[in-house]
C-alpha cells in the first residue's frame, strides 16, 4: 500500500513480539477522560494546558513516560509470527450513547463486541476520533483517525486505530453522525445496534507496537494495532466531526526510544 496519498478523515517496548500490555494503574483513562484531573487546570490541545504541559497538569499520570503514543510508523519490520486480529464484533451489539466530552466525539458501547489478544478477551468500550490523525505512517498524516478502545478484566488496553481518507461517503458514518451535532458536554442516548465490522477496511493487515493512551493519564503498556488500509468518508462527513471537535485534537508524535515496530502482510 502506498502512503503518498492525501490522507483524510477521537482515545492508547516491544523487546520480543508480545501482544499484551502492562496493568493499568490509573482509574481514569480515555474511557473517562472528561472525569480525570488532579489539578484546577484541565488539559487541552493548545496553549498552557496543551500536550507540552500534560505531565505538569496531570501529576499522577504517565504523560512524561518513555514509551508514549502516538508515533510515526516508520522503520518497521515484517513479523510472520503475528496473527490476524481476532475480531468478535456482532450485528446486535448496541451503542449506548454518544458524548461530546470537549476533547472528541465518543460513542460508548454496551457489552458484546470484543477482540482476543494472546488468549485474553478485550471488550470494546468506546470509539472516538482525532482530527487530523495522531499516528503518521511513513511521515504521512491522515485527516482523521478513529480509535477503537478495548479493555480486559485486568484493566489492560488494546486500541485499534483506523485511518480514513477523503472519498466515497460512508454509510456507517452516516448512521453515527445521525445523532450529531452535540454541544460540548452534551450526551445523547442511542441504544441501537451497530455492526462495527461495517466500519472497518476489508484488509486487516496492521502495524503493531506497544505504547500508551494518547490523552491523560497517558497510561503505558497499551497494545496498538494500526490498520494499514484506510476507510473512506466524504468531505461533508469529515467536516461535521471537525466542527464539533477541538481544532487539531491530536497529540504530536512521541520518541520511539528503542521500541520495535512490526507489520503484517506485504
UniProtKB/TrEMBL annotation:
Chain segments annotated as coiled-coil in the UniProt record: none
Chain ranges of the Alpha-carbonic anhydrase domain: 41-265
Record's compositionally biased regions (Basic and acidic residues): 29-38
Cofactor(s) essential for the protein: Zn(2+)
InterPro entries: Alpha_CA_prokaryot-like (IPR041891), CA_dom (IPR001148), CA_dom_sf (IPR036398), Carbonic_anhydrase_a-class (IPR023561), Carbonic_anhydrase_a-class_CS (IPR018338)
Gene3D superfamilies documented for this protein: Alpha carbonic anhydrase
Keywords from the named record: Lyase, Metal-binding, Zinc
Region span, Disordered: 22-45
EC number annotated for this UniProt entry: 4.2.1.1
Catalyzed chemical reaction(s): hydrogencarbonate + H(+) = CO2 + H2O
Function recorded in the entry: Reversible hydration of carbon dioxide.
Family: Belongs to the alpha-carbonic anhydrase family.
Protein's UniProt name: Carbonic anhydrase
Organism: Maribacter aquimaris
Amino acid at each position: 500500500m502506498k502512503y503518498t496519498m492525501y490522507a483524510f478523515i477521537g482515545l492508547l517496548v516491544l523487546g520480543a513480539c508480545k501482544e499484551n500490555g502492562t496493568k493499568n494503574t490509573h482509574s481514569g483513562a480515555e474511557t473517562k477522560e472528561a472525569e480525570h484531573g488532579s489539578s484546577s487546570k484541565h488539559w487541552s490541545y493548545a496553549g498552557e494546558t496543551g500536550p507540552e504541559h500534560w505531565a505538569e497538569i496531570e501529576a499522577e499520570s504517565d504523560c512524561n513516560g518513555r514509551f508514549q503514543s502516538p508515533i510515526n510508523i516508520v522503520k518497521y519490520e515484517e513479523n510472520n509470527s503475528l496473527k490476524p486480529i481476532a475480531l468478535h464484533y456482532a450485528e446486535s451489539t448496541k451503542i449506548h450513547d454518544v458524548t461530546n466530552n470537549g476533547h472528541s466525539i465518543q460513542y460508548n458501547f454496551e457489552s458484546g463486541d470484543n477482540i482476543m489478544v494472546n488468549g485474553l478477551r478485550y471488550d470494546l468500550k468506546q470509539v472516538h476520533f482525532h482530527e487530523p490523525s495522531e499516528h503518521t505512517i511513513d511521515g504521512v498524516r491522515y485527516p482523521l483517525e478513529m480509535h477503537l478502545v478495548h479493555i480486559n478484566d485486568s484493566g489492560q488496553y488494546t486500541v485499534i486505530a483506523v485511518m480514513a481518507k477523503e472519498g466515497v461517503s460512508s454509510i456507517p458514518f452516516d448512521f453515527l453522525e445521525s445523532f450529531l451535532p452535540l454541544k460540548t458536554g452534551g450526551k445523547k442516548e442511542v441504544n441501537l445496534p451497530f455492526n462495527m465490522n461495517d466500519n472497518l477496511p476489508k484488509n486487516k493487515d496492521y502495524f503493531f507496537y506497544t505504547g500508551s493512551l494518547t490523552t491523560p493519564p497517558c497510561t503505558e503498556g497499551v497494545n496498538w494495532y494500526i490498520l494499514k488500509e484506510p476507510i473512506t468518508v466524504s468531505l461533508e462527513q469529515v467536516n461535521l466531526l471537525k466542527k464539533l471537535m477541538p481544532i487539531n485534537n491530536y497529540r504530536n508524535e512521541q520518541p520511539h526510544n528503542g521500541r520495535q515496530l512490526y507489520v503484517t502482510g506485504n
